[in-house]
């Protein structure tokens, strides 16, 4: 199965619908899923996803802001930690727990702080402010092989431009899921996202 570098951001998802939503995402070929911690009962949702889909998908949390939250996500079975900011202590706690760390970074200083702390990759956020031109400039100084995911302002309509600028993948929120969306709606959204991603990345 193709492993697309798309992280589905299920902000606002509830535990009673999360497994159904995740199942249609995985069926569409999106196998990285984060539940932001400012969603309702996020740790319960993460535990359900890890139990049901842990062998088939990378499950984790977004909007992780503290070392305590890293420990809670790890205990729930999550393996991916995504943050909106660069906090070296959170990155260190993530790596100490054996999880993947994707801190948010916007400036070259934040990018290098994240990498020095041990980040597995960078969440370029908010992508709408930085844009492909900003990423292209930052790419010129980042170490070769640094994984960069564009988040916030990246979607099917501009995947190709982001790829040309050096984006390795994306975090996709409302283009995939909004609170209250049915599984059928998410399935349609996922098909469109996957089609655009495959067209841009081959």
From TrEMBL:
Listed Pfam families:
Aldolase
One example GO MF annotation: 2-dehydro-3-deoxy-6-phosphogalactonate aldolase activity
- List, alphabetically, the CDD domains matched: KDPG_aldolase
Reported EC number(s) for this entry are 4.1.2.21
Family membership, please give it: Belongs to the KHG/KDPG aldolase family.
Assembly and partners? Answer: Homotrimer.
Q: What is this protein called?
A: 2-dehydro-3-deoxy-6-phosphogalactonate aldolase
